[in-house]
Fold this sequence. Notes:
Blueprint (H helix, E strand, L loop, with lengths): L2 E6 L15 H6 L3 E5 L7 H24 L3 E7 L1 H13 L5 E5 L15 E6 L4 H12 L12 H4 L8 E5 L20 H14 L4
Parallel strand pairs: 1-2, 1-3, 3-4, 4-5, 5-6
Helix pairs in contact: 2-3
Amino acid sequence: xxxxxxxxxxxxxxxxxxxxxxxxxxxxxxxxxxxxxxxxxxxxxxxxxxxxxxxxxxxxxxxxxxxxxxxxxxxxxxxxxxxxxxxxxxxxxxxxxxxxxxxxxxxxxxxxxxxxxxxxxxxxxxxxxxxxxxxxxxxxxxxxxxxxxxxxxxxxxxxxxxxxxxxxxxxxxxxxxxxxxxxxxxxxxxxxxxxxxxxxxxxxxx
Length: 206
């Protein structure tokens, strides 16, 4: 079956080629088509609150677009890209094959994509950015739905859904990645970029 992966970057990113864009080559080497969902640089948290729901609608629309053309669709989100994926799932009925959540800016008990066959959460205890995001969420209670930020990128997923598997990049692999975007930067990236693509391509819950 034809396969495509949609890459969704995080908050405060002006050049996605510094993060999720680096996954293009590993996925293409595995036979995927690759699409970047670009939503631009959002320097202020209120812009994230305002735009996340509309970005989520666009993501869900792109998933449906490719599914209607016979593609198996995977999504990879980083940071706020995982919050967008969750909104696309809960509000826009997005249903993908595998959802890969890299250092997700989500409350630790929230499933990034409850309708996906498999969700992979890649986290590490050095991710201090998502811990800060947890407190930003509480500063504006009215924004919690559009910006359900929390410490999942630091602690992993702690909920009970069976379709989620955690990978601790500080403990589960010989190569350690410590920090919010550590898997995208050398020396860790030399291992993790291909590992993430391979796990997305091959790993299943059944």
